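Journal club side-thread
Mid-discussion, someone asked how the predicted structure for our own chain would compare to the paper's figures. Pasting it here so we can look after the session.
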Amino acid sequence: MKLETFATLEAVLQTGTFVGGARLMNITPSAVSMQMKQLETYLGKPLFDRSSLQVRPTQLAHEVAGTMRDALRGLESLRTGTVLAIEGVVRVGIIESMQPAVLPGIMRFIRARHPKLEVVPVRGRSSSLAAALKAGDIDAALVAQPPAGGNARLCWTPMLRRELVLIAPPATPDTPIPTLFRQLEWIRYDRKTVSGTMAAQYVSTHIGDVRSSLEFDNAPAIVAMVHSGLGISVVQRPDPATLQSYPVRIFRLGKGGPVLQLSMVNRKADEDSRPLAVVREAMAQACMEYQRLLMK
């Protein structure tokens, strides 16, 4: 088994798709698919659930990647014969909704491996963080990447894909989604955000005109209101901690459902920055750990 195959697996888990993994590895999606099938044959077990339109990694895929991650990193250090001391200050923007999910993992990774590198977290919306990046106020950011791909003058590294779902009060029975929109008020997520715009486009395309007078930019608050029976909403799938406090009924949106791409973005002039490479690695691992949490 070639070592590159494990690097490809890491890229697929990091981006969430074979296409994204192919982009990171600079190979074709068919080559990614072939490598993953070879690895599955080698292990004798499936690494991906292919029963739906979107291929989903199994727990084994994450375990294999985790087992090989440090080994590959160690081999690279032995190959180069040097261990670089990375230091300095990196200002990293993270959208507010993702800070509790990934910031602890990022900080833990960097403090353990590069204690001289200081990370200064900055919170904000995707639009404001992208503007701060272009202005030079921050060095990188984890933001929602626009469906069109984002500003071509910036470098985008896919980190995590988040499915948008419909959430309804916990006692809601199995009901067609269009019927739910007729029965309950739609609590909008802020349309000035990428996910809010995607949700609005989905409703406009698949549902039509609906009753809506509430709009907020705080996902946990929306989940709490839906939990209280005040309406339904289309948001990123809530994390387990939020669902434990505010249980809701989750309806998947199916084939036409929007998927939010979260990416690390930085200026092209900084693409070869070693501190940013460390942040990128830390962010990828933190996002992978969060994805595993969501799959439990």
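Post-session note: The chain has a mean pLDDT of 89.
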